[in-house]
Amino acid sequence: MAKKSAIEKNKRRQKLVARYADKRAELKAIAMDENLSLEERFKARLKLAELPRNSAPSRVRNRCEVTGRPRGYYRKFKMSRIALRDLGSTGMIPGLVKSSW
């Protein structure tokens, strides 16, 4: 089980990303628009830099929904390989069969 503080920090980051997503996308579109003047684009980049760092989507870490583990994460199931194996072995995940040969 991961530290509760790390899990909570990641949840706060996810909320910030959701809150600033529209504003960040708008400023990025302005900054990347070739038809605008350099001054307008530079101002957009400065405003983008003033936004909180944790509002960037790249700072959110994929964590297991069951244990909070940050490594060995399967996106399709939203859980780590260890939790996936445990739940799959007990038959808790529909359609998943642990292979044996």
Automatic annotation (TrEMBL):
GO terms for cellular component: cytoplasm; small ribosomal subunit. It comes from the Bacteria. Keywords: Ribonucleoprotein, Ribosomal protein, RNA-binding, rRNA-binding. SUPFAM superfamilies: Glucocorticoid receptor-like (DNA-binding domain). One of its GO terms (molecular function) is structural constituent of ribosome. Gene3D superfamilies: 1.10.287.1480. The keyword Transmembrane helix does not apply. The keyword Ribosomal protein applies. One of its GO terms (biological process) is translation. PROSITE patterns: RIBOSOMAL_S14. PANTHER family: 30S RIBOSOMAL PROTEIN S14, SMALL RIBOSOMAL SUBUNIT PROTEIN US14M. Binds 16S rRNA, required for the assembly of 30S particles and may also be responsible for determining the conformation of the 16S rRNA at the A site. Part of the 30S ribosomal subunit. Contacts proteins S3 and S10. Belongs to the universal ribosomal protein uS14 family. HAMAP family: Ribosomal_uS14_1 (MF_00537). This is Small ribosomal subunit protein uS14. The gene is rpsN.
